[in-house]
Amino acid sequence: MSGQVVAGGHGEGSRANQLNNPTDVIVDNESLIICDYDNRQLVRWPRQGGTSGEMIISNIDCSRLTMDDQRFLYISDYKKHVVRRWQVGENRWTVVAGGNGQGSRFDQLNWPMYIFVDQDHSVYVSDFDNDRVMKWVEGAKVGIVVAGGRGKGNALVQLNGPRGVVVDQLGTVYVADEENHRIMRWLKEATEGSVLVGGNGKGDQANQLHYPNGLSFDRHGNLYVADSFNHRVQKFQLLSP
């Protein structure tokens, strides 16, 4: 199966028909919204037949994107240590997590990466340099630690470089614990997590991971892991906790 170039493809650069290290993409109706990372902008490309993109947000160090069921776009800005919500087609921002400088207080973030938004519009953020996952209820001024937050390490109460995060309908948090080469599961209000996948050292065996990043579930409850340094995506059929 061959891919089709739908955005960029004209080499690294900052022209309207180029991208520079794109890190994430959202499909929104008839357009693609792309984190154009090294150009420090968010761009929109037509889904079909587009020859160039349109800059819609500039001066942003965009790490990851997600979108909720009302078409609000959520963007993590890792250098400003903030997650913002933006209505597509408007120019108004709302800070939904962080925004109070770099730090480890409950109203701060330190290199926010992946984002997940649940059905109540609570925002979950992998707070990378704080080695924790934070939950920000809609409208809240401070966040709640839902995974990690006990310093960098490999104990069951700790994380080491959290990346991808997803949350199920029961409030269970699944997080890619990148530098521990494992996927952790934290039940709602749990004080420690459990190792779901990996945790057997970095490697390329079926029970190992090597710097896992993104996570996703399908409708059957199977977990897919972007196993970065093994250059593969692994699928895991999970048992109930």
Task: Please characterize this protein's 3D structure.
The model has no long low-confidence stretch (mean pLDDT 93). The N and C termini lie far apart (37 Å). The chain has one domain (61-237): TolB, C-terminal domain (Neuraminidase), CATH 2.120.10. Helices cover 0% and strands 45% of the residues. A hairpin with a 4-residue loop joins strand 6 (72-77) and strand 7 (82-87). The chain has strands spanning 22-28, 31-36, 41-46, 54-58, 62-67, 72-77, 82-87, 93-98, 112-117, 123-127, 132-136, 144-148, 162-167, 173-177, 182-186, 194-198, 212-217, 222-227, 232-237. By secondary structure, it is mainly beta. It is globular. The protein contains no helices and 19 strands. A 4-stranded antiparallel beta sheet has the order 1-2-3-4, with no helix packed on it.
